[in-house]
Amino acid sequence: MTKRIELHCHSVFSDGTLTPAGLVARAAESGVSLLVLTDHDSVSGAAELAAAGAAAGVETRLGIEINCAGEGSADRVHVLGYGLDPASPGFAARLAEFRERRTVRARRMVEKLRALGYPLEYDAVRASAHETVGRPHVADALRRLGIVKSRKEAFERFLIKGKPGYEDSMGPSPAEAIALIRDAGGIPCLAHPQTAGKEPELEALRALGLQGVEVRYAAHSPSQVRAYGDWAAARGLLAVGGSDYHGPGTGRDARLGVEYEDADLGPVLDGISRCS
Ligand code: AMP
Ligand code: ZN
Ligand code: FE
Ligand code: FE
């Protein structure tokens, strides 16, 4: 027997297009029995998620994703957090600080694009962001102006490193992100490890206190799932999995959830069971 669970998805509180209740409805339709919301730098979807989950009979948990910055491959490190207490001292204030730095970065990207002649306004970028702003909101504003047709096109033409609208991330270092999650009682796990680097980079993150790896991921091939699974198991790391669903219109909206054999699910659920 298999079960479908989702441990990595985004709502309108960051760069997704569905509300937490909308994600729960999608989970119910898609046969997802456990839904963990991992918005970027925000836990504000928690109450709506819990209420909608209870009403729909879908088990829900709160998580987070923190996109990092720094030298080398640090700006490709995204840390997922599970089981954390959002009310732990200092946690909310740090997230607010990260979100504030994101607004500074978004304004700089708007200025770069305006200098290129595109009539982009920061308010238009901000308008579609309920809380955390990011490059996808810049992409959406470019799309509304008819400059691009999709988030993907906006990233490829303007928003990835080396492109003219790009501005370096102002996120925390991987060490800070991992420590913040651990200090809040959570389990830090590396999201989509294939973007973060190879074995030496993964080992360095483990030395910083990483406790899990996203082994199942929508974009992973079966051989990648096996390789990351073996790597995690050999080091006693939790093997988590999710689809990184962002909702309709984002280009990252293939089916919600990933499939687990019942036998493989136990350790994952035990591992994140402290989730609030
Ligand atoms: P930011 O946190 O502002 O640097 O934006 C990074 C986010 O943009 C990632 O977490 C993804 O959700 C999204 N993203 C990255 N690359 C792409 C892409 N090529 N197409 C659509 N969304 C992307
Ligand atoms: Zn995202
Ligand atoms: Fe990510
Ligand atoms: Fe994500």
What small molecules does the structure contain? Answer: adenosine monophosphate, zinc ion, fe (iii) ion
State Rg: 18 Å
**Strand-residue proportion:** 15-25%
Low-confidence regions: none
CATH topology of the largest domain: TIM Barrel
Give me the count of strands.
8
What percentage of residues falls in helices of 4 or more residues?
Answer: 40-55%
CATH class of the largest domain: Alpha Beta
**Total count of domains:** 2
End-to-end C-alpha gap: 27 Å
The secondary structure category is alpha/beta
The shape, in one word, is: globular
User: Count of helical segments?
Assistant: 11
Spatial order of strands in the largest sheet: 7-6-5-4-3-2-1-8
What's the CATH architecture name of the largest domain? Answer: Alpha-Beta Barrel
Mean pLDDT across all residues, rounded?
A: 96
What is the string of helix and strand elements? EHEHEEHHHHHEHHEHEEH
Major sheet: 8 strands, mixed
| Superfamily (CATH H level) name of the largest domain | Metal-dependent hydrolases
